[in-house]
Amino acid sequence: MKQTPGIHHITAIVGHPQENVDFYSKVLGLRLVKKTVNFDDPKTYHLYFGNEKAQPGSLVTFFPWPDSEHGRIGGGQVGLTTYAVPAGSLDFWEDRLLNKEIPFNKISRFGETYLQFEDPHGLKLELVEREEGPLNSWSNDGVHPDVAIKGFGGTILYSTEPEETIKTLTGTLGLRQTHENEQFIRLKATGDIGNLIDVQKEAQPLGQIGVGTVHHIAWRAQNEADHKDWHTYVSALDQQVTEIKDRHYFKSLYFRENGHILFEIASDTPGFTIDEEADHLGESLKLPEHYEAKREELEKTLIPLNH
Length: 307
What we know:
- GO terms for molecular function: dioxygenase activity.
- By secondary structure, this protein is α+β, with helices and mostly antiparallel strands.
- It has one domain (about 5-300): 2,3-Dihydroxybiphenyl 1,2-Dioxygenase, domain 1.
- It has 5 helices and 16 strands.
- The strands form 2 sheets. It has an 8-stranded mixed sheet with strand order 2-3-4-1-13-16-15-14. An 8-stranded mixed sheet has the order 6-7-8-5-9-12-11-10, with helices on one face.
- The protein starts with 6 loop residues before the first strand and ends in a 6-residue tail after the last helix.
């Protein structure tokens, strides 16, 4: 059996791109690590945020659809995204959310305390203290490494068939079940970040993709050779898997598990410094080679960003 270390990235659909940048950089303190386009729809941005080094497990990515309708969070989606912060830093984040006038709830799950809130476009988020995982060395707008988001803590998954989703997480991706309560089953991957997945036990009606919903969740493969092995492995399990796609910064394959959640497996390599130096990540619009001839047209179409 193969085992993923955990989450590589999560990709969501949001509204106006400037609101997206302002929230994730100036409120949550993440680094904008790549400004590019949706490779399948180049008139739409694809914005990546993460830790200073743009490491897998810290990467949240967005397709801004500023004139589109809101979706409906439901079955077949990541219902809530969890970010891990250093032990002892939750009081800082509670004060920060209060000062930014962002409503939140403080809840408990499996013995941990969480701050739950929403981004400007309705994505459901939460913060939790975790000892595991390296500190994020990025500082931004009053968020310093001793309190900065390390990366993903995990997610809550909403499934139309929770038992089927759990079978895929354990039987295909190699997670193991660790806890269970009345609402959730918790599973753990082998990594130290992006590794705890809570599946809501009650089946959820199918959600609808739109602004304020997660499009897909991606799991980590070590490198491109390991990614090819994953493609062979998942295909042999009778999953309807796509061909391997070149996303420039990683290789991708996709399949929709039987609870209707779109899963991706993405390689950790080659990474985000392939077309920008580490000190200048996210500073300019990066395009894949086949779109360079359309750069002038695309730059006129895309909404200018301040960051």
